[in-house]
Amino acid sequence: MVVDNLSNSSAEPLDRVSRLSGSKVTFYELDLRDISNLRQVFRSEAIEAVVHLAGLKSVGESVADPIKYYDNNVGSSVALTTVMSSCDVRTLVFSSSATVYGQADSPEYVESMAVAPANPYGHTKLTIEHLLQDLAGSSQHWRVCALRYFNPVGADESGAIGEDPVGVPANLFPYIAQVAIGKRRCLTVFGNDYATRDGTAVRDYIHVSDLAEGHLAALQKMPPEGNFFSAFNLGVGHGESVLDVIRAFEQASGVAIPYRLAARRPGDLAAYWANPAKAHELFGWRAKRGLQRACEDTWRWQVRNPDGYQSAANGSV
Ligand SMILES: NC(=O)c1ccc[n+]([C@@H]2O[C@H](COP(=O)([O-])OP(=O)(O)OC[C@H]3O[C@@H](n4cnc5c(N)ncnc54)[C@H](O)[C@@H]3O)[C@@H](O)[C@H]2O)c1
User: Fold this and answer.
1) Residues near ligand 1 (Cβ within 6 A)
2) Which end of the chain, N or C, is more open, meaning fewer C-beta atoms within 10 Å of its C-beta?
3) Which atom of ligand 1 is nearest to the CA of 9?
4) In this structure, which residue's CA is closest to atom 27 in ligand 1?
């Protein structure tokens, strides 16, 4: 069962999930902050646990409009946990982010490090983690995992479900895919003078299917005792540069990616990646798919859905 206000999505992917899984996904179009209707949903469905993915996620937009981010991200989390509490559902997996770490002394981020987000988006994620930690401390019934994603990329291997950003893609993968298919002329690489092996920024790119398996592992392996809150890094455990990604995508697609070098963007870090050992120790989870696989799956999705989920309406799928 899925609740979403469709502020950054459409219902089409849910139809595709229903088709792929052979199991109809029940969908409620609803804003999580609409407490009374959310309570109705909890009363009419048999819910044991919640995976809380809903949120706004643009760092730049959060700097320009922090109230919108606190209202939506923190507000929806307060509303959701209020309803969960009143309906006796107290098992939760939350989509947090590597953004909570901010500038750190080491590029390898480990959960025991100090956290200091550098932007309002990151502050909202950390505020929600604090809320959930306090809830877990308040009652022996709450069990909560905050999963700190690094850079999710790729698409479902079927080619039917993938990333379909509204407007100009803000992330590297969908941008490269749109250049490869000819929708955009050229990729801009921001910064080639970082202290990295080829001068471009290095990130930990994790395949979305590995990420999905991380959520299942968290739900299955979370300790049964209550009063539980813990944060886990979900990443592959090493970094790849922007030029590594371009080369891998060229290999996967067979298309040369034109790119130009530009100045660094303010606030971008040179390099960071996850230490994912904690998730492995507690959940037995580890990312299995690599960068090449993520490029191949993204390319399959892009070719089959040149106009994203609109492609269904255009008859491309
Ligand atoms: N994609 C990334 O790079 C990344 C990295 C780290 C963490 N995350 C987090 O993972 C989660 C999912 O990210 P995504 O990339 O799939 O983003 P997304 O925008 O595709 O998904 C978020 C969904 O939440 C919905 N939503 C937003 N506010 C809502 C509200 N008040 N009520 C109901 N629905 C609401 C949106 O319509 C959207 O479908 C987000 O919380 C994001 O902050 C994403």
Assistant:
1) 4-9, 31-33, 53-57, 72, 76, 95, 97, 149, 151-152
2) N
3) 39
4) 55
Q: Contact, 298 vs 153, CB < 8 A?
A: yes
Domain count, the chain: 1
pTM to 2 decimal places: 0.96
Q: For residue 58, give the nearest of 68, 44, 49, 48 by alpha carbon.
A: 68
CA distance 73 to 120: 11
CATH number (domain holding residue 211)? 3.40.50.720
Tens-digit pLDDT profile for residues 158-172: 999 999 988 889 899
Point out the residues that are catalytic.
121
To test the ligand 1 pocket, which listed residue (1, 2, 7, 205) has its Cβ within 8 A of the most ligand atoms?
Answer: 7
Can you give the residue range of the structural domain that contains 90?
2-314
Ligand 1 centre to CA of 157 (Å) is: 21
Question: How far is the centre of ligand 1, averaged over its atoms, from the C-alpha of 8 (Å)?
Answer: 8
Tens of pLDDT, residues 42-91 = 999 999 999 999 999 999 899 999 999 999 999 999 999 999 999 999 99
The residue among 57, 52, 75, 37 whose CA lies nearest residue 2 is 52
CA of 137 to the centre of ligand 1 (A): 26
Instruction: Give the number of the atom of ligand 1 that is nearest the alpha carbon of residue 56.
Output: 27
CA distances for 196 relative to 2, 168, 189, 240, angstroms: 41, 27, 14, 10
List the alpha helices (DSSP H) in the chain. 12-21, 35-44, 59-64, 66-69, 75-86, 120-138, 172-180, 208-221, 242-253, 277-283, 291-304, 311-314
**CA dihedral of 180, 183, 187, 188, whole degrees rounded to 10:** -170
